[in-house]
């Protein structure tokens, strides 16, 4: 049993790297099924093996211990050590190297699934400053995939949007990314497009031409812990996060005015293409991600890259 448990623990790692994430088995995720069966089977066999060892090899006798003060006396400590040594002797662990070594091997092999699962904790958020947005990419409705013109938006309106790359037109090649990578890219590139009266907007000097007649575009990802946000108060120009109530003023460069978030919402610079559709003029110049300790370092690196590009 211990030997099979060790093989199953190794099988966990094999299944993790060889079974495709999207494969199914009897309607279930094939990878999840294999991981659960191998890891669970390994733990089960180790437990059954230890029980069988205790029942069939170790001696079975009752022990009676009288009540005593919480602090053990020296005699009690000596007695405990004597009992421990007697238990070791009765288990015959020294005389049963096959059972002993196979148990140690099986328990040691359980470290493999733990190490493999550490891969699912990454990649870490720092170093992932860029999204799929790039200059000239159209902003499209995230449901219909239709491109947006300024005339399609009324003052006070909010539209959830995505980059056009996720909605290839008829005759165009499909997106190069698929599966969970596609979902991750779509969630990171998600934006909201709002229209306000131009006189209500107070942009920073470097963002003066980032809008189109009161139309602005911001990331949909809250800078606190990454929740998607679209609770729009058109009268105050405030955007609220439903998770922890962080509030951003979209008329004032996405500035945080309430809640636990510490960074403004990243803004996407906008322009128009030759057909009058709204397009991005570049990727986000700020990191799209929840806050984390490494953010200041990576934001500085991103700013340096942007400054070199502008030069």
From TrEMBL:
Protein name as catalogued: Cytochrome bc1 complex Rieske iron-sulfur subunit
Record's subcellular location: Cell membrane
InterPro entries named in the record: QcrA_N, Rieske_2Fe-2S, Rieske_2Fe-2S_sf, Rieske_Fe-S_prot, Rieske_Fe-S_prot_C
All residue ranges annotated as the Rieske domain in the record: 188-279
Taxonomic path: Bacteria, Bacillati, Actinomycetota, Actinomycetes, Propionibacteriales
Transmembrane segments: 33-54, 98-118
Keywords attached to this entry: 2Fe-2S, Cell membrane, Disulfide bond, Electron transport, Iron, Iron-sulfur, Membrane, Metal-binding, Oxidoreductase, Respiratory chain, Transmembrane, Transmembrane helix, Transport
Domain of life the protein comes from: Bacteria
Signal peptide from the UniProt entry: none
Cofactor: [2Fe-2S] cluster
Family assignment from sequence similarity: Belongs to the Rieske iron-sulfur protein family.
SUPFAM superfamilies: ISP domain
UniProt main location, coarse: membrane
Membrane topology: Multi-pass membrane protein
The protein's role, per its UniProt record: Iron-sulfur subunit of the cytochrome bc1 complex, an essential component of the respiratory electron transport chain required for ATP synthesis. The bc1 complex catalyzes the oxidation of menaquinol and the reduction of cytochrome c in the respiratory chain. The bc1 complex operates through a Q-cycle mechanism that couples electron transfer to generation of the proton gradient that drives ATP synthesis.
Organism of this sequence: Aeromicrobium alkaliterrae
């Amino acid at each position: 049993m211990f030997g099979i448990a060790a093989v199953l623990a190794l099988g966990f790692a094999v299944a993790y790297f060889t079974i495709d994430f999207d494969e199914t088995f009897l309607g279930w995720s094939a990878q999840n099924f294999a991981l659960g069966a191998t890891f669970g089977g390994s733990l089960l066999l180790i437990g059954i093996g230890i029980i069988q060892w205790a029942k069939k090899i170790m001696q079975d006798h009752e022990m009676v211990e009288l009540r005593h003060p919480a602090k053990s006396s020296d005699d009690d400590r000596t007695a405990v050590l004597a009992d421990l040594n007697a238990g070791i002797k009765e288990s015959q662990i020294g005389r049963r190297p096959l059972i002993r070594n196979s148990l140690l091997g099986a328990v040691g092999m359980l470290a493999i699934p733990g190490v493999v699962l550490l891969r699912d904790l990454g990649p870490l958020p720092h170093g992932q400053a860029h999204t799929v947005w790039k200059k000239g990419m159209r902003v499209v409705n995230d449901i219909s995939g239709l491109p947006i013109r300024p005339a399609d938006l009324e003052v006070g309106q909010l539209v959830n949007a995505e980059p056009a790359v996720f909605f290839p037109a008829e005759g165009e090649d499909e997106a190069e990314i698929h599966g969970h990578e596609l979902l991750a890219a779509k969630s990171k590139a998600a934006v909201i497009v709002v229209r306000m009266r131009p006189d209500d907007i107070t942009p920073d000097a470097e963002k003066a031409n980032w809008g189109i007649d009161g139309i602005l575009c911001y990331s949909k990802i809250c800078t606190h812990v990454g929740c998607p946000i679209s609770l729009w108060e058109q009268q105050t120009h405030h955007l609220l996060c439903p998770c922890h109530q962080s509030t951003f003023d979209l008329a004032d460069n996405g500035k945080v005015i309430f809640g636990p978030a510490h960074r403004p919402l990243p803004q996407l610079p906008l322009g128009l293409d030759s057909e009058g559709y709204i397009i991005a003029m570049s990727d986000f110049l700020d990191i799209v991600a929840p806050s984390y300790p490494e953010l200041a370092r990576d934001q500085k690196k991103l700013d340096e890259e942007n400054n070199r590009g502008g030069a």
